[in-house]
Amino acid sequence: MPDRRRWCDRTPLEGACRSPNRVGEASVGLACTTCRTGRLLPPGEAWTARLRGVIDSGVAVANNAARALRTPSRLSLPTSAQAVWIVVAVGILLRLARYLVDRPLWIDESMLSLNVTSKSFSALLGTLDFQQGSPPAFLIGEKLAVEVFGRSEYALRLLPLILGIASLLLFRRVAAAFLSRRPALLAIGLFAVFEPLIYYSAEVKQYSGDVLATLILLLLAHAALVERPPSGAYVRLAAAGAAAMWFSHASLLVLAAIGTVLAASAAQRRQRRALALLALPCSAWLASFAVLELVTLRRQVGGLQRSIVGEHSPYALPFPPTSAADARWLASNVSWIFRGMAGWPTVLAVAAVLLCALGAWTCLRRADR
Predict the structure, then answer these.
(1) Distance CA 217, CA 205 (A)
(2) Whether residue 320 has a cis bond before it, omega within 30° of 0
């Protein structure tokens, strides 16, 4: 009879039978037991032992699998902060991709670009050709880009791209200030992939600057509502508001709304000191607006008024609305924010308007509490 102990000593699996927690322990242990006893098992017992070994191996595999499932995986889902940065990175890539397409200038871009490339810095503060209007700080930034990088679509769209990416980065803080974690992540995702915001990040117009200025003012206004005392927040809001209107004409409307909300909040809470301190930012805004009006607005508003807000212009706001046609104009233009700019169907646009109204009502109820 062959020397089974010598055969087992030479097998590379001998070490496995000394590790009882490894898969295959039963089958290897059978061979070693046979060698240790020094005898060969009868055929019936050998098959029984092999079957028992197979069953024990299956049990060991199941135990190891259960242990692996109970052990935390290293490839876990991203945390909330990581998910936010992933969404922001996607939004930045979408804006860069739109910028790198380098599409030709369309007519509105071309008319503003001709002013930027043909006029001097001081002339940009005066009346613009082709009935154009733009904030002076934005025009100076565009002029600097052209002077440094040359006359090209890339140079003209560089400043809107920077403003668009900065808006996306700042919106993280705005969403965190107004929303809880999951709604904030949803809002950041919508902001990152919203087509008009991507488009205007690569257009030679000031609209991406309007978005950034609005976000800055909203964040500072929120701080003014929650800080006690609000004096420091009012100082920051005064400086930011006075500067914002030179970068964004739309910030004038935002500042009017912010001043109204702050005054109403202070009056409702009977905070006379906060209501008196509100005179500081309002005075700074009015002074800055007066200078802006003298320097540039009064020279640009004539052509804009004739071309955009004339009596028979389709863009003219019927105020106050006095007929059913005026009411339809208001409803159509409010829904166009979602339907026209985002390309959504009418049903989704109406749903978005209703959700915005519901969100505003929820915020008011939360503020009352």
Answers:
(1) 20
(2) yes
Q: How many CB atoms neighbour CB 315 within 10 A?
A: 10
Strand (E) or helix (H) holding 6: helix 4-10
Residues 161 and 155: their CA atoms lie apart, in Å, by 10
The length of the chain is 369
What is the tens place of the pLDDT at every residue in 105-124?
A: 888 899 999 999 999 888 88
Q: Are 172 and 84 in contact (CB under 8 A)?
A: yes
Say which residue the tokens 């969403």 belong to.
175
Q: Percent of the chain at pLDDT above 90?
A: 33
Return the ∠ at Cα 43 (arms to 41 and 49), rounded to 5°. Answer: 65
Q: How far is CA 8 from CA 2, 13, 62, 293, in A?
A: 11, 8, 28, 99
Residue-wise burial string across 243-278, b where 16 or more C-beta atoms lie within 10 A, e elsewhere: bbbbbbbbbbebbeebbeebeebbeeeebeebbebb
Q: How confident is the model at residue 315 (pLDDT cuts 50, 70, 90)?
A: low
| Close Cβ partners of 57 (under 8 Å, ≥ 6 residues apart) | 23, 24, 25, 26, 27
Predicted model pTM:
0.70
pLDDT of residue 236: 92
